[in-house]
Amino acid sequence: MEQxxxxxxxxxxxxDLDLTKSTKINPDEKVYISKSLINQANGSSxxxxxxxxxxxxxxxxxxxxxxxxxxxxxxxxxxxxxxxxFARQKRVDPLLIQYDNDEDCEEAELCxxxxxxxxxxxxxxxxxxxxxxxxIDVIEDDGQHLLSAIILSATVALIDACIELYxxxxxxxxxxNNSLFTLGYxxxxxQVSCLFFDGEATPNELDLLTDEAVKQCQVLHKAICKVVIxxxxxxVALNRKTI
Amino acid sequence: MSLDNHExxxxxxxxxxxxxxxxxxxxxxxxxxxxxxxxxxxxxxDSLLQHSYGSSMIRFGNTTVICxxxxxxxxxxxxxxxxxxxxTVVLLPRTQAWSTYGRRQQIINENLTLSQHxxxxxxxxxxxxLEDLCIEEGKWVWRLQIDFxxxxxxxxxxxxxxxxxxxxxxxxxxxxxxxxPDTQKPLVYTKELIPFQYNHxxxxxxxxxxxxxxxxxxxxxxxxxxxxxxxxxxxLHYVLLKNDQICLIHKTSGAPFSIEKFHQCYSLARDYxxxxxxxxxx
Lengths: 243, 282
Fold this sequence. Notes:
The complex is a heterodimer of chains A (about 240) and B (about 280).
Chain A: E1 7-8, E2 31-35, E3 43-49, E4 52-63, H1 70-73, E5 76-83, H2 102-118, E6 130-140, H3 146-160, E7 170-176, E8 179-186, E9 191-197, H4 203-242
Helix pairs in contact in A: 2-3
Chain B: H1 6-13, H2 15-25, E1 42-46, E2 54-60, E3 63-74, E4 85-91, H3 101-124, E5 134-136, E6 140-152, H4 157-170, E7 173-179, E8 186-195, E9 205-214, E10 217-222, H5 226-231, E11 234-240, E12 246-251, H6 259-280
Parallel strand pairs in B: 4-6
Antiparallel strand pairs in B: 1-2, 2-3, 3-6, 5-6, 7-8, 9-10, 9-11, 11-12
Helix pairs in contact in B: 1-2
């Protein structure tokens, strides 16, 4: 069956779209965290932050094929983030390989940000000559929580894969005047692992934002702890039964 | 994957031997506790994506599939001025060796075969009438985009994709489109949603049987997991419509098969699909 040459996004022709979409802030965002849902992976997780949905799979630590000097002393981190075709309002055709689209650049940018956030917390020297692959699929993106959901899912999956960590990285994205503020925080060490902000603000405002983000990070940290502990409890209960 | 205990190690070295010993020891019950003709539990979630016109998430045991339906506007082909287009895309989970060439090619091939099968079923069963996708003859038609993203592949993808499609179609509504008489440009009213028109009568559903040789006899495993698909001699797909008519049979090569066996499989498939249809209509 033949396919048409040219397709148009229906939103191009929309007549009743309100462009002045108010950025509503709903304080009671839904958070859903689950882990160990991908069988083949060593560790995996699924995170929902309001309507952003992300899955993460971790393979490794496994032997690396790279022979660089770096890999002799510590573990290499390889990340790959992909948007599903229906992640955004505009559909991305996965069969079409484009080299000049913005989507690829964005994926690469998110990858590097994720690595920046995770590097301080993993004990990389414990796994020499090996590599850890982090594969993330973005199922849906609401424009605010994407980066924090990616970092959170990677952390939960790392815990699930039993990779040694100094602490869990919990991230929170806040939206201020069309600019995003993302903070990666390690609650037990009380350290900031990463901070991204691409807007205009005075130092005072930034302080306030950081405080707010840290407060919300602690709430998320409790949620993660709850999931992990429940999971461990059920695993212990299951083991007792088999013994 | 941990190779800590004996069982895991045996599974890693020789999967089919492990499976056979398991069946011997556990009185013909499969490793997940099912009997040969028993299916896994099904979980259904609908309308979970806000950017799509219709969507669903299905879990068959551990297999998780998301189906999303969106549409694009396009010009019809000159051959048939009233018919729209359908495209199906299946995306399997990316695994660790995604970057290596051989594995990547294999995944792409699997994706394409599955998408093509699903598209064939949609055409042959007349589930979606292409003329229903027409907005104005010769000017504008819809191009239906059906995307399947598999989050976790634990076997039986075909059944779950087709089931997800049926659920998603029930919850699909398209925006109203009118044609501007002066400029011939379409006007899309995103707030006025109308339920999507499709053939409710058909409901094609698939039954996958893994044919496994055990004690010199063919056993039919309904709703196989990915391990069972790997050790099976061949895999049989039956797609049946609502009136138990066969829409598609597909058997992979491997085991020689007599006509009686096909009949036997058909009756198994019919019972299984009857159960699925009940779940669909709950």
